[in-house]
Amino acid sequence: MCRLSNILISLLNSCTLIIGLIAVLGAVHIRDHGGTDCQKVLQDPALIVGIFFIIVSLFGLIGSCCRLNSILFLYLIVMFLLILGLMAFTIFTLLVTNRGIGRVVSGTGFKEYKLGDYSHWLQNHVVNDENWIQIRSCLVDSPICPSLAEDYHEQEAEFIKQNLSPIQSGCCKPPSYCGFEFKNATFWIAPKTGPAVQDSDCTTWSNQQNILCYDCKSCKGGILANIRKEWRNFALFNSCAITVITIIYCIGCCAVRSNSSSYKYY
């Protein structure tokens, strides 16, 4: 049992060590060879997560291969704190994403999104002015809106039937209540008398392809709708990760107990 538990800990930590090395190498590659602003946003988190994985994996490998309970104890403490952290983050994720839903637009296949429909924490900490500069840069660099314009050029009847993603609906076109005339998916003409509704999103819209509705509240609402979906999926992933890490933690406890028992025979 002593050998089996130590072998399992060694194998599992070899896998996490490889994952950590890949994350660090990816972050270093972006740092050395440049990249888009969107890629640079991921640089520091990938580096931190990669280094964390490497350090924890080395603790597990050294402790299991050398049967050093002092190192394994440290490894188990880190794993226990990680389990608590993931549980807290999962609960927090569910709490801050409990609000927010797209509003169906009559006669269309897509929904539109309002910034005020989402939790104040998401509004104040995710799409605040500082973060929005980076998010906006990612949107401009992405092919989301240009590809939409290519697919629906002078095809309004087909466009309004599409189930657009939250980002496409909120950022690539003006809100439907503005009453703009369709030319293509990212080119809309305002009425001569002005927008049907005097809303800031209607006046913010621009047909310049690097502006569009990237500064609209509807775009921020679309981003939060996308984040809400991803965070809820991530909460499910976290639940699975907590289960796996708990199993690893239990195996580590078995390894420590087995190592202690084996020393008594010497």
UniProtKB/TrEMBL annotation:
- Which controlled-vocabulary keywords does the entry list? Membrane, Transmembrane, Transmembrane helix
Superkingdom of origin: Eukaryota
GO annotation, cellular component aspect = membrane
Q: Where in the cell is it found?
A: Membrane
Its placement in the membrane is given as: Multi-pass membrane protein
Q: Which residues cross the membrane?
A: 7-26, 46-65, 72-96, 234-256
First and last residue of the signal peptide = none
Q: Read off the InterPro entries from this record.
A: TET_plant, Tetraspanin/Peripherin
What family name appears in the similarity comment? Answer: Belongs to the tetraspanin (TM4SF) family.
Q: What name is this protein filed under?
A: Tetraspanin-11-like
Organism, as annotated: Cucurbita maxima (Pumpkin)
Its lineage reads: Eukaryota, Viridiplantae, Streptophyta, Embryophyta, Tracheophyta
Q: What gene is this protein translated from? A: LOC111490540
